[in-house]
Specification:
Elements (H helix, E strand, L loop, with lengths): L1 E6 L6 H11 L3 E5 L12 H6 L10 H13 L4 E5 L7 H4 L4 E6 L2 H12 L5 H29 L2 E4 L4 H12 L2
Parallel strand pairs: 1-3, 1-4, 2-3, 4-5
Length: about 180
């Protein structure tokens, strides 16, 4: 079984891409980081960054256990992980055969997040979110770009269409 980690910043296209790949790639399954709650989950990302941006503070045991179950079952050729850390977390790094980073420009990721998560919010709430992004969240996105992107095996242009991104990743997976 080949295990592929798909990483990106928040709203960078991980979930959409993983779901598209899974539709096109026979004998594949996926696990999605956002479907889990983890002990050690970071609440204050600014403090996390000030403390050294240690990705290992998340206890990924539930995700690791599910990966091991899928491996033992032997039903699939590919496990696609919707997983933001690539090789940066020691608990999962040995499982990953290839890590792919979708390099989505931060303005596109921000626009996607607002459109996806804030469609029913007031203009004031959206303005407050933009202020928070400028003051705090953008620095976290940049930290991920600094750490995760260069540690990935492949970097894909996240400004391209979902079809083109999925095509490119499937070619990589089949290598």
């Amino acid at each position: 079984m080949k295990i592929v980690a798909i990483a990106a910043v928040t709203a960078g296209g991980k979930t959409s891409t993983v779901n598209e790949i899974k539709k096109r790639l026979p004998k594949s399954t996926s696990l999605h980081f956002d479907d889990y709650s983890f002990d050690g989950e970071v609440e204050d990302f600014c403090k996390w960054m000030q403390d050294g941006a240690d990705y290992n503070v998340w206890d990924l045991t539930p995700l690791k256990n599910d990966i091991e179950k899928i491996i033992r079952a032997g039903e699939y050729e590919y496990l696609i992980l919707d997983y933001p850390f690539a090789y940066q977390h020691k608990m999962l790094s040995d499982f990953i055969d290839v890590a792919i980073f979708i390099d989505t420009p931060l303005d596109i990721a921000l626009a996607r997040r607002v459109l996806r998560d804030m469609k029913n919010e007031s203009a004031d709430e959206i303005r407050n979110e933009m202020e928070s992004y400028i003051k705090y969240a953008r620095a976290v996105y940049v930290q991920f770009l600094r750490d995760i992107l260069p540690s990935s095996d492949y970097v894909i242009d996240g400004s391209r269409t979902l079809d083109l991104i999925a095509d490119e990743i499937i070619k990589i997976i089949k290598l």
